[in-house]
């Protein structure tokens, strides 16, 4: 405890802070061994083309289930994993698992477009191309069925490096998208400079559509810009019919959000895909990883 709050002393600790930092410490230690203890699981959420009623992509979202901490949100543990230097291993596990699951759906004849995986900025600037090649090789997944979701944070520091990396990814035949578009602080000029296939409008913009006129104008502008640059556009966090009406009126037809489905484990997602694609004939095989 800091001495009597006197001059030149700092009140570094309060009892509340101690509890918070203790919890953090415990969580950090659990996170370090989570991969080894097999505590991660992937959930999957579809991207649906509203016009054709087809699933055109699936995003893999990591879940951490700890026996005592319970389910920890990725928004909480991903930044922690980045600080602790664990993120490359976790993202690599996600990449491999997602590719294997996509391969299973492919073998079963389930149509669902590419599987997309979120890539942390640290991984992006590390050995991304190698991890991607390995995951494709191990799963024998055709490259066009894999997509990487990258945020603006990945290229904010090093534009040259980022554009080279994206060109390498494209050369492999792998798709790429900008995630959470509009929430970063990078300039718009990168949009035309970088080799992206898809732009994902962040759910924070979609949330207030169509109630908030300013947000509506922003979303309209983003859609128009994507069209002008010949980049496909996906709206994230679509929940309501009013949002669907607004977006389709502006020419954006691919939606990811609770309106169509919530993220679910491989089995739940398989059920959704089979339900959505009733007409197709599927082979009678195991549809999820053991
Ligand atoms: P994200 O990539 O933007 O993923 C979309 C988030 O929106 C997911 O949150 C999803 O569950 C949520 N969502 C989907 N539909 C709706 C909706 O209709 N309404 C609302 N309110 N939310 C919706 P989640 O799964 O908690 O993931 C949060 C973030 O954590 C992700 O944002 C992504 O940035 C990060 N993340 C998740 N998995 C991974 C991973 O494997 N690696 C890395 N590096 N980051 C990951
Ligand atoms: Mg994402
Ligand atoms: Mg997003
Ligand atoms: Mg997000």
Automatic annotation (TrEMBL):
Transmembrane segments: none annotated. It comes from the Bacteria. Residues 24-277 form the EAL domain. This is EAL domain-containing protein. The chain holds residues 556 to 845 of 845 of the full protein.
């Amino acid at each position: 405890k800091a001495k009597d709050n006197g001059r030149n002393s700092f009140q570094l600790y309060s009892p509340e802070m101690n509890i918070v930092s203790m919890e953090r410490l415990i969580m950090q230690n659990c996170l370090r061994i989570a991969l080894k203890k097999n505590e991660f699981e992937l959930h999957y959420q579809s991207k649906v083309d509203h016009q054709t009623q087809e699933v055109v992509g699936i995003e893999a979202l990591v879940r951490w289930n700890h026996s005592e901490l319970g389910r920890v949100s990725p928004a909480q543990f991903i930044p922690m994993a980045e600080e602790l230097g664990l993120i490359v291993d976790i993202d690599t596990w996600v990449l491999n698992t997602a590719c294997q699951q996509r391969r299973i759906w492919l073998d079963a004849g389930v149509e669902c477009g590419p599987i997309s995986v979120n890539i942390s900025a640290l991984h992006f600037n590390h050995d991304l191309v190698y991890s991607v090649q390995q995951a494709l090789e191990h799963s024998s997944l055709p490259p066009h069925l894999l997509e990487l979701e990258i945020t603006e944070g990945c290229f904010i520091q090093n534009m040259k490096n980022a554009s080279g990396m994206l060109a390498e990814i494209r050369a492999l035949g792998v798709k790429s998208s900008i995630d959470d578009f509009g929430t970063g602080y990078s300039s718009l000029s990168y949009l035309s400079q970088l080799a992206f296939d898809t732009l994902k409008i962040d759910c924070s913009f979609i949330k207030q559509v169509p109630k908030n006129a300013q947000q509506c104008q922003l979303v309209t502008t983003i859609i128009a810009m994507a069209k002008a640059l010949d980049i496909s556009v996906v709206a994230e966090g679509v929940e309501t019919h009013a949002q669907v009406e607004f977006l389709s009126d502006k020419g954006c037809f691919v939606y990811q959000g609770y309106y169509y489905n919530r993220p679910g484990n491989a089995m739940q997602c398989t059920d959704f895909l089979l339900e959505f694609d009733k007409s197709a004939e599927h082979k009678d095989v195991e549809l999820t990883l053991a």
